[in-house]
Target: NADH-quinone oxidoreductase subunit H
Amino acid sequence: MSPYFAAEDLSMFGRDPWWLVVVKAVFCFAFLMVTVLIAIVMERKIVAWMQLRIGPNRNGPWGMLQSLADGVKLMLKEDVVVKRADKAVYVLAPIVAAVPAFMAIAVIPFGPSGNEISIFGQRTTMQLTDLPIALLYILAVASIGIYGIVLAGWSSGSTYPLLGGLRSCAQMISYEIAMGAAFASVFLYSGSMSTSAIVEQQADRWYILLLPVSFIIYIVTMVGETNRAPFDMPESEGDLVGGFNTEYSSIKFAMFMLAEYINMVTVSAVAVTLFLGGWRAPWPVSTFWEGANHGWWPMLWFVVKVQLLLFMFVWLRGTLPRVRYDQLMKLGWKVLIPVSLVWLMAVATVRALRNEGYGFADLALYIAAGVLVLLLLSFVADMFRSKGRDGRDGKEAEGAGEPAAFDPMAGGFPVPPLPGQELPPVPRRRSRGERELVASGGPDNHSDGSLDGKEASDG
Model:
């Protein structure tokens, strides 16, 4: 095996007694639920602050119990089941969407595997379990949640939920492809799919510095994967009346909302594990404090990093407008997937050269040469494209008297004009005085030609 690949030592997992496994599983569940309650209140307060509103301030001190009150309210609402629904699938869909979101946290390390802690006198690691293919397990579990959305839209027996479920499924699948490519870059660089081994490999330098393109791709894809703004297509009530969950109410609707926020916490925890050093203390703290990565302190650093990423979700929602669905899919298929594949090939090439014994200076020289060649090819292609465009524009100017009118519905949906295009002229509206004159029976001097022709024929 290459010296650059991590040696996986998972012998410390699988030795806990059954009661300790139950305690750790309950802790993971409680951590997700408490984080979701905090995230909901934080989102409402931060967005209210950004929009100069008051925000929740009634339930509990400073409105801190608002999300708990919302959960109780949803559970006490009437549970309506539409007549045309496939009841078995209709009830199962929220469960299928929510349960996989909880399962992914099982392989996330909250602390170092070599630094065991004591729980009721039993030494154990700060992680429920780990697998040699832990990140493939996360991808597989996340993919199961898509079935819940599709089944919810189909089983409702209504057109709008079906359309919302289909486009939500297409969105999540397209963004999962780029997410998997970002994961593969981490696999190649770390030499392991184990989450604890990947965090151990970031002892000297976090992967956000070594794999910045993978980090950016993952950040974009995790926002699209969780259906959050500006990619919140399932919640675009203006064109789909709520999307796949239109026919749901009470606790089943709350489970869809819970699944969304649990997924936010899960993808944030995965981002922290893969790119932000996991449970490791940030650079200034780890240099002057040797105990920063021992005991219970690693859990504090992990929670702080997750909360910062959750704040990023809220910040995006309060800042960016919702994109159109065609823009969403174009970003996923025409930008993120090609960029992630090219970056994956570059990372694989660097790893192969490292395994062959090439130094950092040689790698930097090869990478600079490759970037220079790509820029040169792009420059030449732009030159030929601009010449061809100028020739076509000249021929069109000679052959055509005036450019064709811009059609805002040419693509099947209303779009604004591009630079150089103009909207077709809008019929001039009468002023208030002209409307009063026509209403009083006076002469209509601004009527169009079709009306004059009609009057002449009537005469």
Residues 1-6, 445-457 have pLDDT under 50 and may be disordered. Strands lie at 117-119, 122-124. Residues 18-285+292-335 form one domain.
